[in-house]
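Course assignment 3, question 2. Fill in each field.
Student: A.L.
Task: Predict the tertiary structure for the chain below.
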Amino acid sequence: MNEEIVEQIARENENKTEVVEEKKMTTWLIFSIGKKKYAVRSSDVLEIIRDVAVYKLPFMPTYIEGVLNRRGDPFTVINPCALIGEEDGKAPDEPLFLILKRNDDQLSLHISDILFFTDIEEGDLNIIPGNNEEGFFLGTLVYGGDEIPALNTNAFELLIRKDLGSA
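Answer field:
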């Protein structure tokens, strides 16, 4: 009798088994440069700092503003506007910087404002077809009716390595 009940329960469980797909969520940081919104994966950001001085470096490409001092370590300050053609290439007036999480380089992006963090399903990122790792944009994500470009933080490092001749 017990065996029959166990078999019946097992059959019912087989019939009720549903494949539940886990939706992979990625947290994105939405920020602005001038009046435009951009996004980066929050996992690519180490820290957000403000009110630090940027020290100019001679003979650097125009997109490198200089370096900032973060707890005694120099971080290269990149002006994304100079690379993506926004705001006439002019750096934001605000002293606000995204410190990027990198394994071997110390980079930061000069931005205008932090807007919010949001979780987006992996499939909701509209990837640019045929885009390679040197492109500055991964694609776009839609939030609240706005289509927000997602930046490829690896592209900044690759460009610096190419322009400054390091491997």
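Instructor remarks: Residues 2-16 form the longest helix (15 residues). The two ends are 73 Å apart (CA to CA).
Grade: pending
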